[in-house]
Amino acid sequence: MEIVIFFATREGQSSKIAERIARDLRAGATEVVVLDVKRLHSALDWSLYASVFVVASVHAGRHEPEMIRFVRRYRHELERLRAIFMSVSLSEAGAEDVRVPAERRRRSAADVQQMIDRFVKDTGWQPERTSPVAGALTYSRYNVLVRFVMKWIARRQGAPTDTSRDYEFTDWPALDRFVDEVLAASR
Fold this sequence. Notes:
This protein folds into two domains: 2-135 and 170-186, Rossmann fold (3-Layer(aba) Sandwich), CATH 3.40.50.360; 137-169, no CATH class. 48% of the residues lie in helices and 22% in strands. It has six helices and eight strands, in the order E-H-E-E-E-H-E-H-H-E-E-H-E-H. The chain has helices at residues 13-27, 65-80, 90-96, 102-123, 144-157, 172-186, and strands at residues 2-8, 32-36, 49-59, 62-63, 84-89, 129-134, 136-137, 167-168. Helix 1 (13-27) links the parallel strand 1 and strand 2 (32-36). The chain starts with a strand and ends with a helix. The mean pLDDT is 93.
């Protein structure tokens, strides 16, 4: 039996996170398959999977529409397999940033929870476990309009605004520890 990691991404950070989870799981001698829900065109054989991770990024306060459709369609299978949901957002980066005032971190954490709650409401799925993950500002991948909007949002939030480079906020060691916890709990 395998563990499957489904992801939805726009600029690629959720894909990187899914691949990192897969790497961590494989280090524990686990068979893993990573699937982009945008590229799924055939029926899934859920009997192949022992466990599931769902990794989805947030844009403009909502998770990727293809992930919402996927989870709605397979909600019962995800619940049966006690799937884990990883919500990737820049708001989580704000919640984790110890350099900003505590009140701003609390507001960011509340935003993260609100986005997760909206995903649960939109899909009807209650994940077994949820983990927010900080995403990235990938200015190099944005079109001119999105780059302008993201720079404006970043300025308001105290995030980097130099659009000549990208910024990754994912706490990789924390993600590794989370995967280790999941593996330990499943044994």
